[in-house]
Amino acid sequence: MEKINLQQKLGLFAETWTPKIIGALNGQEVKVAKLEGDFVWHAHEDEDELFLVLEGSLVMKFPDHDVKLDVGEMLIVPRGVEHMPVAAPGTSVLLFEPAGTAHTGEVVSERTVNNQEWI
After folding, report:
1. pLDDT in tens, 11-68
2. How many Å is the Cα radius of gyration of the chain?
3. Distances from the Cα of 112 to the Cαs of 8, 73, 82, 84, 108, in angstroms?
4. Residue 112 covered by a domain
5. Which of 3, 10, 87, 94 is the most buried (most CB within 10 A)?
6. How far is Cα of residue 65 from the mean position of the Cα atoms in its chain?
7. In this predicted model, what pLDDT tens digit does every residue of 32-46 receive, in sequence order?
């Protein structure tokens, strides 16, 4: 058992929209990611996702409304709900989701990451 320093882990990479796995428990993965700009509209049919803003701000767009998150705020996106994250420059998040969750759900785009790596 070793502690995990989130800032240290975020310092190990620069790319955006490429979640890195930093822990696992009970079939779930804990990830950190740097975000900037628009992502893609997508849904996860079988998985809920938790987003916790560590730095910057994030707007989670839904078909009928938007939710703005600032540092220290979190949002759980229920399975099957279409969403699109939009992040201010310098935004980083902690993600919590079932192991093997597809990065962009069923949507395949230039932002899709097929093999999320451990750091």
Report:
1. 999 999 999 999 999 999 999 999 999 999 999 999 999 999 999 999 999 999 999 9
2. 13
3. 25, 25, 16, 13, 6
4. no
5. 87
6. 19
7. 999 999 999 999 999
Q: In whole angstroms, give the CA distance from residue 90 to residue 55.
A: 7
List, in order, residues 6 or more apart from 100 with CB less than 8 Å away.
none
Residues 6 or more apart whose CB falls under 8 angstroms from that of 44 comprise: 77, 79, 80, 97, 101, 102, 105
Does any domain span residue 34? yes
* Global pTM value: 0.90
> For a pLDDT cut of 90, what percent of the chain falls above it?
81
| Structural domain containing residue 83 | 6-98
Q: What is the CATH number of the domain that holds 15?
A: 2.60.120.10
